[in-house]
Write a structure and sequence with these properties.
alpha/beta, four-stranded mixed β-sheet, Alpha-amylase, 497 residues, 9 helices
Length: 497
Amino acid sequence: MYVHLLLGLVFGLVKCDHHSRTNQLPDRSTIVHLFEWKWNDIADECERFLGPKGYGGVQISPPSENAVIHLADGSRPWYERYQVMSYKLVTRSGNEEEFVNMTRRCNDAGVRIYADVVINHMTGHLREAIGTGGSTANYDSFSYPSVPYAREHFHLPPCAIDNYNNPNQVRSCDLGGLKDLNHGIPHVRDRIVDFLNHLISRGVAGFRVDAAKHMWPNDLKAIYDRLHNLNTDFGFEPETRPYIYQEVAYNGIESIKHSEYIPLGDVTEFRVGYELKPVFLGHNPLKWLVSWGERWSLSPSDNVLAFIDNHDTQRGNDVLTYKNARAYKAAIAFLLAHPYGEPRIMSSYFFNNFQQGPPSDAQGNIKSPIINQDDTCGNGWVCEHRWRQIYQMVAFRNTVGDAQISNWWDNGYNQIAFSRGNRGFIAFNVQESILNVSLQTGLPEGDYCDVISGKRNGKNCTGRKITVKADGKAQIELAGNAKDMMLAIHVGREVST
């Protein structure tokens, strides 16, 4: 008899197409959005946690210089990062030297960096704005001398978006009052290409393109086509192209569709979070997930970034967030267990209102997270990526690799289970009654540690142990009121008992 125990990550099992797209290493998966983290803190996190736990990459907050905005209480909001002053690499997260230190250390730890780039617009209505790098701008006169941009570089006359079914408005008018750049102008394209190529030279693996649906696809293609290959000095293979995923919020009926942007790169599939919220709150039957993916009218799996929440949607009521922790963990477990899309995990700070920025001191400097003995964070940071149920499922995903879904089971309502070939098995119970049934796991005979309820402790499990018999079946028991809605087991390194 053997015990199959999670060791954080399993090497050599993940060999699927997403690695060629995302530039992640073969034994890794999953992007974590370290929202508003400082560059030095991200470097530390790559080395001490993300690399060892098998995460594939980090999405960072916008690295370009932004306007300094003070709210009535003196604090600074999160959205100031999306009000661009120049393309200097100076923000509250750090300067250019610290940025390069981060990309080098993270790449050395096997973790890729994807920069959130804001290239659709400049600032909102700040008459005499001052940036995080000392740049100045004048909104009324369209003056951004540190780029430089002037009136002739924007869509004129200025207009507001009041009809999202009008593509011309969406792509040529001001988003929320933010000065809208005209990407058909060579000077604008040149400055943006220079900015993105500078980031490539500094070791990034790709980009999350903010507000991509607010830019014309042909303009974006003209920009992307001029991007350099990734910098081999940071460990990338020659001729490696940057991974591009574009923020295109699409609800299925808008006139601007994912299909217009998919030829250029991946797109963000917001509907994943919207659709899974009612499922894991028990409002829609879990059994319907048997057809999860394109049959739910979602965009093709090979072209999407999939996520439960992001820094925008978590401030609304349409998706699950850390504030609904039990259902949220289950939804993320399903996201990571299912092969649909390239997954991204949100890592947040605690907030009480829409505008609230990251944990900061009286001078507006971002506070570093404190790492507690149990691997959780303090100092105002949530750090969902450090929750056991989440990072263990990252390892699950790394282990199952490209294995297909098999051995689907459901009780006709809110209990389901499935395997990923003969590498992993997961079960969910989102109803009050107990799940207690013998199920086909697809796994080899042996004793397995449930990676949701615990971890390996020597040769034993700190959580529940599940015995798989010679025929691949196991007795699966999960109470309706259990701390977690799911259990998961997978193959890995073995130790005798």
